[in-house]
Write a structure and sequence with these properties.
The chain is built from 6 helices and no strands. By secondary structure, it is mostly helical. The longest helix is centred in the last third of the chain and has 13 residues.
């Protein structure tokens, strides 16, 4: 699987985590601790470390996810579809959690 590079502020960090993983983990942190799709990848601990160091970008990234190509988002390995990913990002933003 090829890596998709994000060309916006902090994009190199989001590329490391993956947009879907980022939204999934954010959803777990802010909305529903029963949501655990994010931990089905073996590299989740490394991704959690990057996540913790990049909080200043989180709101911006969630907004960027809403405009992302659904075909790209559908390439994730977390078992989430683009419409679900975008709905989770929107819910986090709407709840003013970040």
């Amino acid at each position: 699987m090829t890596t998709h590079a994000f060309n916006f502020t902090g994009g190199e960090f989001l590329t490391t985590m993956g947009a879907t993983w980022f939204v999934s983990y954010s959803y777990y942190n802010y909305i529903d601790t029963n949501h655990t799709n994010w931990n089905c990848v073996s590299t989740y601990k490394n991704r959690m470390s990057v996540y913790a160091k990049t909080k200043q970008y989180h709101r911006f990234w969630l907004q960027q996810v809403l405009d992302m190509n659904p075909n790209q988002l559908n390439k994730n390995t977390l078992g989430l579809e683009a419409h679900e990913i975008k709905a989770m990002a929107k819910e986090i933003l709407s709840a003013h959690k970040v």
